[in-house]
């Protein structure tokens, strides 16, 4: 069998955005692939109906869509040359094309005077549409053509500089966002009218469409988001918006309707800070009072890691039988249903991950995008009441045909009072009589998980003859708040877990040459890699990616800096004792102790773990004569390894692999 190749990532298909029609007979989803030149991705719509998958679009630019009826879609795209020029000119608008599923070309039928992200039918011909606005001109959608031209000219003239009077003023993947707001509009298809319903000083975090009102929530856009949300109600009867709740009690992260009643996912953050798992509450939109429906025992949403996804998956969906939602359960992403009596049932339980889903109670079916240890994303259909799932697509079968895929060997060991899960991938052509190099890979987050899911970089290393091993230390997701909460402990208990894990792997797999073990990780995994090289010399080399090295400077430059640093490090930058604590937890403090050859991977538009974090540690090591190297990717952000340009993803992996090869 052939090994996984470094550029196989260009062959993979990535599925997302799956959505059923109202009658449940048709599902539409998005498929993304690498462009031939490796400089980006194509995005097209596909349809599943009557047991068959069929392609709907071929323009390579279609991704966002909404159901108009059971046989028509609204597609957000710029197909006409004039529209493309307007988009390049930074004009705020969204063309709407109507696409019939039974054949024919998409036709432009409307245009929204703002940048739209999604839309959903509320009643009659009125749609709720989420979009974006600027505080500089929140009523742009109301302007005349001449006034819009004047505003567009102003935006183009101001494009060479930024004014910052808010925090955060930039955001990873979005660039400078100062003054930008997420907004909620109503669009009437019959007369083409548009109305924004939210206060332009608030960014809308989410909403729920009820018969007589729209409930939505958000945070002040003019300051760093805190842990709390303001809840609003827009009345269908009189068109007025009122504040239901603004008492700094809960952060709202999701919503649903159950038996006609509103349910909010909320957390007060009192026990475990900003990463505390939300609970399900009945919420009375008339009084603003809540009543606990279900206290979660693990996190809502799927945080299982993989570098073989593009696009976003649904995490929650309304149903008459219950609320359907994905859950990170230990090491897997599963699908659950919560009923009105507070009982949680598992709908899809699997080793691997439910990356996206939709349900149809009309047909009693679930359609889902899944990924496992030995298979890339594919589309599956199953029954709501359970049973075997049928795979209905084969987008990635050819990419892995006759290819060696190392299946993870799991074991659990005790460390720091917890049972910790870890996995090992054996190298291609494994011979127990031989000795092999190895790679320890550390996940980001820290509140995410590794599981039994296909990882391109790990499979590539296994195909080159490396053992690859990885674990979920304290701080990881999927096991409740107590396990995930490492506030104020960074570099302590989880560092001990990882060292114990390395010991256990070397004991169980004596074929690994202990003098040829490499270590790498990104984001929090990059922080931990930095921490490791400052506290032990046991690894022959390290590759630290999109990392944190200095908590003191991180607070002032990251898009989540002030909020994340204070919450996770339990320290205030402007308190002298806390300043010393922040420095103690900073890998940069231990630069004098580093001897491990270290490669730095960073992107110059990473606003989550900004470039300066890598520069500081690289400079400290270089001036101390530690062997090191830095690879900087222009135009990329924090998502380089998962959503960067294909050719950049290949080059990144080559840089890391060449570094490992030269030191093993």
Describe this structure in words.
By secondary structure, the protein is α+β, with helices and mostly antiparallel strands. It is 18% helix and 36% strand. It has two domains: 6-297, 7 Propeller (Methylamine Dehydrogenase, Chain H); 404-550 and 586-663, Rossmann fold, CATH 3.40.50. The chain contains 13 helices and 39 strands. An eight-stranded mixed beta sheet has the order 32-33-35-34-36-37-38-39, sandwiched between helices. Strands 23, 24, 25, 26 and 27 form a five-stranded antiparallel beta sheet that branches. A four-stranded antiparallel beta sheet has the order 1-2-3-4, with no helix packed on it. The longest helix has 18 residues, at 646-663. The chain is globular, with a radius of gyration of 25 Å. It starts with 12 loop residues before the first strand and ends with a helix. The mean pLDDT is 95.
Brief digest:
It is built from 13 helices and 39 strands. The chain is an alpha+beta fold.
Write the layout of secondary structure elements.
Blueprint: E1 13-20, E2 26-34, E3 41-49, E4 52-55, E5 65-69, E6 72-76, H1 81-88, E7 94-100, E8 107-112, E9 115-123, E10 126-134, H2 145-157, E11 170-171, E12 175-176, E13 180-188, E14 194-196, E15 202-209, E16 213-220, E17 230-235, E18 241-245, E19 251-258, E20 261-267, E21 279-283, E22 290-294, E23 299-300, E24 316-317, E25 323-329, E26 332-338, E27 344-348, E28 353-360, E29 365-371, E30 378-383, E31 390-391, H3 397-400, E32 409-415, E33 418-425, E34 436-442, H4 456-463, E35 467-472, H5 481-484, H6 493-508, E36 512-522, H7 524-533, E37 541-545, H8 551-557, H9 561-569, H10 576-584, E38 598-603, H11 611-622, E39 628-633, H12 640-643, H13 646-663
Parallel strand pairs: 34-35, 34-36, 36-37, 37-38, 38-39
Antiparallel strand pairs: 1-2, 2-3, 3-4, 5-6, 6-7, 7-8, 9-10, 10-13, 11-12, 13-14, 15-16, 16-17, 17-18, 19-20, 20-21, 21-22, 23-25, 24-25, 25-26, 26-27, 28-29, 29-30, 30-31, 32-33, 33-35
Helix pairs in contact: 8-9
């Amino acid at each position: 069998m052939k090994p996984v190749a470094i550029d196989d990532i260009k062959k993979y298909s990535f599925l997302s955005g799956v959505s059923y029609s109202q009658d449940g007979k048709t599902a539409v989803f998005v498929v993304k692939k690498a462009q031939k030149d490796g400089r980006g991705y194509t995005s097209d719509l596909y349809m599943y109906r009557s047991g068959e998958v069929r392609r709907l679009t071929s323009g390579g630019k279609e991704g966002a869509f909404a159901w108009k009826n059971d046989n028509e879609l609204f597609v957000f795209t710029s197909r006409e040359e004039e529209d493309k020029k307007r988009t390049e000119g930074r004009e705020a608008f969204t063309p709407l094309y109507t696409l019939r599923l039974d054949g024919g070309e998409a036709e432009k039928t409307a245009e929204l005077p703002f940048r739209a992200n999604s839309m959903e039918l509320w009643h009659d011909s009125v749609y709720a549409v989420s979009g974006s606005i600027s505080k500089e001109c929140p009523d742009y959608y109301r302007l005349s053509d001449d006034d819009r031209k004047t505003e567009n000219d102003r935006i183009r003239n101001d494009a060479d500089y930024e004014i910052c009077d808010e925090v955060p003023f930039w955001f990873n993947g979005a660039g400078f966002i100062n003054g930008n707001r997420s907004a909620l509009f109503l669009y009437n298809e019959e007369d083409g009218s548009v109305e924004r319903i939210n206060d332009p000083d608030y960014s809308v975090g989410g909403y729920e469409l009820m018969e007589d009102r729209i409930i939505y929530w958000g945070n002040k856009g003019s300051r760093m988001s805190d842990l709390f949300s303001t809840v609003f109600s827009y009345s269908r009867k009189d068109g007025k918006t009122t504040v239901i709740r603004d008492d700094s009690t809960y952060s709202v992260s999701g919503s649903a309707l159950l038996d006609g009643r509103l349910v909010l996912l909320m957390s007060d953050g009192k026990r475990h800070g900003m990463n505390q798992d939300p609970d399900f509450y009945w919420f009375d939109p008339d009084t603003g009072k809540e009543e606990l429906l279900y206290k979660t025992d693990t996190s809502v949403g799927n945080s299982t890691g993989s570098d073989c996804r593009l696009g976003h998956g649904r995490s929650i969906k309304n149903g008459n039988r219950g609320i359907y939602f994905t859950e990170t359960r230990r090491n897997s992403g599963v699908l659950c249903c919560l009923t009105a009596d507070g009982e949680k049932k598992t709908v899809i339980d699997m080793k691997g991950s439910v990356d996206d889903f939709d349900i149809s109670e009309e047909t009693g079916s679930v359609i889902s995008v899944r990924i496992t240890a030995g298979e890339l994303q594919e589309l599956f259909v199953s029954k709501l009441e359970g049973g075997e799932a049928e795979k209905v697509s084969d987008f990635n079968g050819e990419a892995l045909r006759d290819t060696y895929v190392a299946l993870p060997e799991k074991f659990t060991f005790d460390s720091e009072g917890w049972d910790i899960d870890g996995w090992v991938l054996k190298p291609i052509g494994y011979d127990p009589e031989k000795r092999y190099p190895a790679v320890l890979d550390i996940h980001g987050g820290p509140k995410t998980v590794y599981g039994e899911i296909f990882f391109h970089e790990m499979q590539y290393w296994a195909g080159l003859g490396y053992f690859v091993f990885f674990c979920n230390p304290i701080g990881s997701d999927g096991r409740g708040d107590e396990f995930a909460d490492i506030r104020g402990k960074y570099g302590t208990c989880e560092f001990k877990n990882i060292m114990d894990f390395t010991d256990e792997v070397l004991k169980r797999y004596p074929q690994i040459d202990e003098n040829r073990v490499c270590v790498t990780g990104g984001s929090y995994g990059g922080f931990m890699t930095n921490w490791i090289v400052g506290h032990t010399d046991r690894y022959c080399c390290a590759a630290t990616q999109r990392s944190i090295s200095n908590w003191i400077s991180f607070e002032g430059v990251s898009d989540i800096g002030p909020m994340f640093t204070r919450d996770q490090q339990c320290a205030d930058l402007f308190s002298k004792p806390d300043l010393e604590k922040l420095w103690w937890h900073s890998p940069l403090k231990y630069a004098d102790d580093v001897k491990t050859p270290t490669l730095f991977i960073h992107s110059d538009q990473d606003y989550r773990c900004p470039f300066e974090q890598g520069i500081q540690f690289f400079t400290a090591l270089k001036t101390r004569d530690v062997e090191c190297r830095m690879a900087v990717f222009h135009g990329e952000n924090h998502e380089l390894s998962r959503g960067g340009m294909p050719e950049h993803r290949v080059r990144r992996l080559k840089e890391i692999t060449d570094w490992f090869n030269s030191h093993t």
